[in-house]
Automatic annotation (TrEMBL):
It holds the Pfam family MreB_Mbl. Forms polymers. GO terms for biological process: cell morphogenesis; regulation of cell shape. It is found in: Cytoplasm. It comes from the Bacteria. One of its GO terms (cellular component) is cytoplasm. Keywords: ATP-binding, Cell shape, Cytoplasm, Nucleotide-binding. Forms membrane-associated dynamic filaments that are essential for cell shape determination. Acts by regulating cell wall synthesis and cell elongation, and thus cell shape. A feedback loop between cell geometry and MreB localization may maintain elongated cell shape by targeting cell wall growth to regions of negative cell wall curvature. Belongs to the FtsA/MreB family. The gene is mreB. This is Cell shape-determining protein MreB. ATP binds at T19, A20, N21, G167, G168, T169, E215, Q216, V217, K218, G295, G296, A297, L298. GO terms for molecular function: ATP binding.
Length: 347
């Protein structure tokens, strides 16, 4: 009765605090906020524009295109907070947008974080969330939230595996009986793929492009495996020799070549996680396979490349960009039973 009343007065909140995107799920309502992790500031003052509302979609449009008086920044890098104060402003805005806590109650919040974060980085997450208006804060590993969100049978006596490729980190884990039995996080994911495209164009086309353009090219024509119909995209940037703006055409084969290094790092991470499993669990994985989540899972042909390289079935989760947030939402439904297994700020 108490829990039901509490849920009505002040629903619990789940957050996928991502390098590229932040998603907020509310108990009983699902994902209600899905916005880029970007904040726009008045240069010099560190004041968030629009009385604290130039956050998310609005701020992202300003990234790389701001006049001198405005700057748009991402407060997270490689899955961790790099600008504590801005992360707090961003979380405050998203929490207010998502939450309808009544009578001044502060919601309990479950936040998904990469498996590799240090105790100091965890402390930064706890403090940012609390200062932004959260009540009790619990942390869940991103890979576990991804496994739950993808509907994997993680509590069964059977191995299941997830590879969550976000903007800053790739989290890989194998689960059995509700526990993570083998896992690894690498700070190689979507952002590193964008950097690889920037570097390829600089080296092979003498063209300097920004990370937004690189991401656009990756999404438009990027692939991990040969395509039935190869594609091409137009890129615009600055000629590094003549210093004048210029256009060029890059093919999907060339983008694939550019992405080879970060993709190899991600596949090696999966191999290392499988190698550390007991033979019985490896035998299970040959049947159950691997589920890809996170925005990186949308790269064309990544499932085919991984199937070929890992020798196990590989599947892309439904709506991979929201899997972790949906996992935190499931967690909220079981918070009373699971709270002792989650790391909390009162520990
Ligand atoms: N169609 C697509 N093809 C390839 N990559 C994509 C596609 N759509 C989105 N992405 C990439 O997915 C990444 C964002 O994914 P996601 O929102 O899961 O990350 P995040 O949760 O913010 O990051 P992290 O978990 O590392 O903190 C970005 O790098 C984006 O470029």
């Amino acid at each position: 009765m108490y829990h039901r009343l509490r849920g009505w007065l002040c629903p619990d909140v789940g957050i996928d605090l991502g390098t590229a995107n932040t998603l907020v799920a509310v108990q009983g309502e699902g994902v209600v906020v899905d916005e880029p992790s970007v904040v726009a500031l008045e240069k010099g003052s560190r004041k968030v524009l629009g009385k604290g509302t130039a956050v998310g979609k609005l701020a992202r449009q300003m990234l790389g295109r701001t006049p001198d008086s405005i700057t748009a920044v991402r407060p997270m890098k490689d899955g961790v907070i790099t600008d504590f104060e801005l992360c707090e402003s961003m979380l405050r805005y998203f929490l207010r947008k998502a939450h309808r806590g009544k009578f001044g109650f502060k919601p309990r919040v479950v936040i998904a974080v990469p498996g590799s974060i240090t105790p100091v980085e965890k402390r930064a997450v706890f403090s940012s969330a609390e200062r932004a208006g959260a009540g009790r804060v619990f942390l869940i590993e991103e890979s576990k939230a991804a496994g739950i969100g993808a509907g994997l049978p993680i509590s069964e006596p059977l191995a299941s595996m997830v590879c969550d490729i976000g903007g800053g980190t790739t989290d890989v884990a194998v689960f059995s009986l509700g526990e993570i039995v083998s896992s690894q996080t690498v700070r190689v994911a979507g952002d590193r793929m964008d950097e690889a495209v920037v570097e390829y164009l600089r080296q092979h086309f003498s063209l300097r492009i920004g990370p937004q353009m690189a991401e656009q090219v990756k999404i438009e024509v990027g692939s991990a495996y040969p395509l039935m119909n190869e594609m091409a995209a137009e890129v615009r940037g600055l000629d590094t020799i003549s210093s004048i703006p210029r256009k060029a055409t890059i093919t999907s084969e060339e983008v694939r070549e550019a992405l080879r290094e970060p993709l190899t790092a991600i596949i090696n991470c999966c191999k290392a996680v499988i190698e550390r499993c007991d033979p019985e669990l490896v035998a299970d994985l040959a049947d159950t396979g691997l589920v890809l989540t996170g925005g990186g899972a949308l790269l064309r042909g990544l499932d085919e490349l991984m199937r070929e390289q890992l020798g196990i079935p590989v599947q892309v989760a439904d709506d991979p960009l929201t899997t972790v947030a949906r996992g935190t939402a499931v967690c909220l439904e079981h918070l009373e039973q699971w709270r002792d297994d989650l790391e909390s700020d009162a520990a």
